[in-house]
Amino acid sequence: MITRLVVLQHLERESPGLFALEARARGWELQICRLDQGDALPLLGPGDALLVLGGPMGVADLGDPAYPWLASELDLLRGVLRRGQPVIGVCLGAQLLAVAAGGTAVPLRVGEPPRPLLEVGFGAVSWLVDPGAEPLLRGLEAHELVLHWHGDRCLLPPQAELLASSLHCAEQAFRLGPRAIGLQFHVEIEPPTLERWLAEDGAYVIEALGPQGPARVRADGQRWAERQQQRGRRLVANLFDQLDG
């Protein structure tokens, strides 16, 4: 039975959001480890679930002295998978989870000849399993609108179960056994957080979508905020139910 959610956070603006909201609603303790600020990696006990969030760094930065904690974080994830402890990886966290299981992460490329793509903004993911028959997707539709903010993709190990894809990126959600789940997209975002991302990472959005990109993402966020929060909270609750089962 889970009693504490331990969060590995890599950047101030990439916070646990809806995950923290749902954890507190369940009476779980919340521990946030800011690896970018020098916090030590946590010691995980039998009542702990691990949440690994995103960040602008990537798997290609393993060994970079600017991110000395990345390699140790990867070792921690290998141990978590080996012991069968509950873990969720989001964006960078999902990529690290894939690598820890024997996969890898590479730049996202599309077209012929392949060219790099930054998948940024609100777009659909399609579940590859029937929401009516999968407890993880209880209360969700076959296609859901989510926030994308990445330029890499996971190449999954053979034992992974692919759960969702988008138009441009096949690996949007996956499962490694019953207690490890990766999400390439961002389900955790709350409206004030999105505004902060646009303010602090606007150049990335412009690179992906052009000069009008930030305004477009802001308008989409306002248009779909209520639905996104309701569906996001539903998915987070389902994820926690599965990990706590």
What do you see in this structure?
The protein has a nine-stranded mixed sheet, sandwiched between helices. It has a two-stranded antiparallel ribbon with strand order 5-10. The chain has helices spanning 18-25, 70-83, 92-100, 191-200, 202-209, 213-243; strands at 4-9, 29-34, 48-52, 87-90, 104-107, 109-110, 115-116, 119-127, 143-150, 152-155, 161-165, 173-175, 180-183. The mean pLDDT is 97. Strand 12 (173-175) and strand 13 (180-183) form a beta hairpin. The protein is globular and about 50 Å long. The chain has 245 residues and is α/β, with parallel strands linked by helices.
Task: Briefly characterize the structure.
The chain is of the alpha/beta class. The chain is about 35% helix and about 25% strand.
